[in-house]
Design goal:
Helices cover 32% and strands 21% of the residues. By secondary structure, it is of the alpha+beta class. The C terminus is likely disordered.
């Protein structure tokens, strides 16, 4: 099976596909990111659905994205010739569509297309019928796929197969379009025109930004921004954490979760990344999605939602899929959506504060919503919760959760002081100060010289790196320096940061093995920069950037022993952290971490 880093992503701003370097599309959900997959070989094998398009005899291969776009070019070279395949998904106008164009580059090459459609995550074999010489249609239940090509096709063992020879200068297109079976077939568009339009769309979009960074960082930064754009569900502005489910955090392990949803925790980081790169339209759309998603009773706020704000994300296991490299179970839905994670209140209030500070005006003011959220948070901030890592063990008083509760009240106080927002500013200041004192008393261990994962514990946690980044304490404080040093000593493996030590703490109720967590490693970059250790920060950033695959994509985690990526892929949280750290390291540009706590001198009263 291909490694996670062997995949590239293409997308149409509503869903995405993963293309393996050998020419097989092994993951695709139609019509949305969170729809059931019609290609699920990523979590099983070819019989669970995939589309292979490659030379019959193979050959030496290399790939790249076409310029600053989401159009993937894969080239094969052999003794008889060379061939290139363009894979892309046109930004959606009507029917969601996947397009593949084979181009003869040199000589002649024998090609094979092997299309295996299996709806409902590889479980359902559809009915297939030929409409005309160009068109075959597969339907089952709520799903229909229309497959069109000028190449001759035939049925073979519940697959649609085509073998053909391509010569230099010849181009052979294939299209696969989703439609509801009770409706009309999607119209047939010109694949070549679609390629031109898709190229123009992405080039125009990336041209709107202002990523002024060193040349050696520019390709990976632009690719991160393009990846983040491709993970936006355009109709609502929500950003999914990843386009995949159940890629394991350790090969053969059970830490396999569905990430095709939108996390509130990403709110402020997303906003700052988009604003720093001057993508204000996307920042506004994300902020608007956020307000819609959390509307209602604050007691019902969730840590994640569906792309359109759906709340019911029931977690199920799919027993017919063996999992990526036998990493079972395969899960869809996410039970963590029902957890109490107090930190998300801080993320929501901070994101809305940052939006206001940076001039993102609302058609209607969400301030009333924030007041209600703060009233509820005041009642619950002393309670234990499941925390940032969504533990499946007993609730605890996580230090990060308390710090983010402080952030919520701190940003509320600033809103009153800086923007004359109406509210009980003096009372919120008292609550903020009480939380601050509580964390300093119960969350810091003098023996360790460090903050700890939870009250009463002596375990470390990488989320503690966020304490100076949100302005709870300045980086110059001895307690912050001690925390960073302790994390470097006990949580860093091969220069990269683990979330915590599950084999010691038993905090999450799961088997202990997992990789290092790449977003946490970028947080360490930010802390090192705040501490004045700029050379160390730049070295670590360069190391992290070097982990990206050949097309600039990063997963959630990494195995430093096996030198391979782990977890869902590509991961928005990682690419967000990369973008923000890049800006943090550039002295001539506004720093996201400074933007986030620029008024941190308004520290709580002691």
């Amino acid at each position: 099976m291909a490694r996670i880093e062997d995949y590239a992503m293409i997308g149409d701003l509503q869903t995405a596909a993963l293309v393996e370097r050998g020419g097989s599309i092994d993951w695709l959900c139609f019509p949305r990111f969170d729809s059931p997959a019609c290609f699920a070989a990523l979590l099983g094998d070819a019989d669970n659905g995939r589309w292979l398009l490659a030379p019959t005899a193979g050959g030496k291969t290399w790939r790249r994205y076409s310029g600053d776009t989401m159009i993937l070019e894969t080239t094969w070279e052999s003794d008889t010739g060379a061939v290139r395949v363009y894979d892309f998904m046109p930004p959606r106008n009507s029917a969601p569509e996947l397009v593949r164009i084979v181009e003869g580059v040199r000589g002649t090459v024998d090609m094979r297309s092997d299309l295996v459609i299996r709806f409902d995550y590889g479980h359902v074999v559809p009915w297939l019928r030929r409409i005309d010489d160009l068109t075959r249609v597969a339907v089952a239940g709520p799903d229909g796929l229309c497959f069109r090509t000028s190449a001759h096709t035939r049925g073979e063992n519940l697959r649609t197969v085509s073998t053909f020879t391509v010569e230099e200068g010849q181009r052979v297109p294939f299209t696969l379009s989703w439609f509801p079976p009770h409706g009309d077939l999607p119209r047939y568009g010109d694949p070549e025109a679609a390629l031109t339009e898709t190229d123009a769309f992405w080039q125009e979009w990336i041209g709107k930004g202002r990523p002024d960074v060193p040349d050696e960082w520019r390709p990976v930064l632009l690719r991160s921004l393009l990846t983040l754009k491709a993970l936006i569900y355009e109709p609502t502005g929500g950003i999914v954490a990843a386009p995949t489910t159940s890629l394991p955090e350790w090969i053969g392990g059970v830490r396999n979760w569905d990430y095709r949803y939108c996390w509130l925790r990403d709110a402020t980081l997303t906003l700052l990344a988009l604003l720093n790169a001057d993508f204000r339209d996307e920042a506004k759309a994300w902020r608007t999605w956020l307000v819609r998603a959390v509307a209602g009773d604050p007691a019902d706020i969730q840590i994640m939602y569906g792309v359109a704000g759906e709340r019911r994300l029931t977690e199920l296991e799919l027993p017919w899929l063996p999992g990526y490299e036998s990493s079972a179970p395969v899960r869809i839905g996410n039970a963590a959506s029902e957890q109490l994670q107090i930190d998300v209140f801080g993320e929501v209030v901070d994101a809305l504060y940052q939006a206001r500070v940076h001039g993102l005006e609302f058609a209607r003011n969400p301030w009333d919503l924030q007041i209600v959220l703060l009233e509820h948070l005041e009642r619950i901030w002393r309670e234990p919760d499941e925390g940032i890592w969504e533990i499946r063990g007993p609730k605890r008083h996580f230090v990060h959760s308390k710090v983010m509760a402080w952030v919520a009240f701190d940003r509320a106080v600033r809103s009153v002081e800086e923007h004359a927002s109406p509210g009980p500013g003096e009372h919120w200041r008292e609550v903020r100060d009480a939380i601050h004192a509580d964390v300093l008393e119960k969350g810091f261990d003098e023996e360790l010289g460090s903050f700890v994962q939870s009250y009463g514990s002596q375990e470390l946690d990488a989320s503690l790196l966020l304490i100076p980044l949100v302005g709870f304490l300045p980086a110059s404080d001895r307690r912050i320096r001690g925390t960073v040093e302790a994390i470097e000593k006990h949580l860093v493996v091969d220069g990269l940061v683990r979330r915590y030590r599950p084999e010691r703490s038993g905090v999450d109720g799961l088997p202990p093995r997992e990789g290092v967590f790449l977003p946490c490693s970028f947080w360490l970059v930010d802390c090192l920069e705040l501490l004045g250790r700029s050379d160390d920060a730049t070295r670590l950033f360069d190391r992290l950037v070097s982990l990206a695959n050949d097309v600039g994509l990063l997963a959630e985690e990494y195995d430093p022993e096996a030198k391979r990526m782990l977890g869902n892929f590509p991961q928005a949280f990682t690419h967000l952290a990369l973008v923000n750290s890049a800006f943090n390291l550039l002295p001539h540009l506004p720093s996201p971490m400074d933007r986030r706590h620029a008024q941190r001198q308004s520290s709580p009263r002691r």
